[in-house]
Amino acid sequence: MLLERNNRSSFIQEIEDKREVEISSCFQCKKCSNGCPVNFAMEIMPHKIIHMIRLGLKDEVLKSSTMWACASCETCTTRCPNNIDIAKLMDALRQIATDSGFDTAQKDVPIFHSAFLSSIKKRGRIHELGMIGEYKLKTGDFMKDSRLGWEMFKRGKLKILPSGIRGRKEIRGIFDEAGRRKRS
Question: Which pTM does this prediction carry?
Answer without folding.
Answer: 0.68
